[in-house]
Amino acid sequence: MNIQFGISTWVWTSPFTTESTKLFPAIKKMGYDVVEIPVEDPEVIDAPQVKQALDEHGLDAVICGAFGPGRDLTHEDPSIHQQCFDYLDALMHLADTWEADFIAGPMYSAVGKARLVSPDQKKREWELAVTNLRKVSQKAADNGLQLAIEPLNRFESDLINTTAQAKQLINDINHPAAKIMVDGFHMSIEEKSLEAAIRTAGDDLIHVQTSENYRGTPGTGQTDWQSFKRGLEAVDYSGVVSIESFTSDNQELADAVCIWRPLAEDQDELAEQGLQFLEQTFQ
């Protein structure tokens, strides 16, 4: 395995803005190679200025999308699809500026869209996701990029909950730019085995997010980290393992991801101890 370690700026702040680059010196000093940038609003980000800060502190960037109700490729209204296409175009522009290799996230549907629907409606929404993501895959390929498509747990999506479902989705999309990312938090809810889930992703796995089963500091909860490690070794994973956790200080973010209490005594402590644990586990 050849692993770099990253961390999401959601650990400290939301939304990411140009001013959020003030986090970069501390992230680098902690020992991280990569900063994961969740882009909620591209309009508040000066891409060249962020690139300058990345270069200054020797950090690479991973770009994660934020997909709310207005960015839903399975919506019945095609104008909503266009809003999502436009947003994904903006992410691709950032990726070009920041020299990122892919854009990541649950881009098939809106986060929080979790309902029990009829088989016919499920089929329609699946086909919309396939058709629209095939278009996005081609656009990504035209820009030298890939898509890292993320399964979410059942409370956040009713479309793609497991790695097997993500694998079926990218098989149906049938485009070489469509790939998979996994998130240990979601896997801890939905998968019978972390190792088996990662093996299912196989060569299509291009990004990994981690936190504990309760979304806190890696190594402080119930996650089966040895199963996680065996899975990554089995697929000979080369890429980023990134901590995605959240601050409860931002009300909008806390509401979106259901963070009703602090997940660590100190966010810097979460980042520092989490990195130490990941290095000991995966290196």
Describe the protein's architecture and organization.
This protein is of the alpha/beta class and 283 residues long. It has one domain (2-282): TIM Barrel (Alpha-Beta Barrel), CATH 3.20.20.150. It is built from 10 helices and 8 strands. An 8-stranded parallel β-barrel has the order 1-2-3-4-5-6-7-8, surrounded by 6 helices. Helix 3 (78-98) runs parallel beside helix 4 (119-142), helix 5 runs parallel beside helix 7 (194-201) and helix 7 runs parallel beside helix 8 (225-234). The longest helix has 24 residues, at 119-142. The protein is globular.
Q: What is the structure about, briefly put?
A:
With 283 residues, the protein is of the alpha/beta class. It has a single domain, classed as TIM Barrel, CATH 3.20.20.150. The chain is built from ten helices and eight strands.
Could you list some keywords that capture this structure?
TIM Barrel, 283 residues, eight-stranded parallel barrel, alpha/beta, single chain
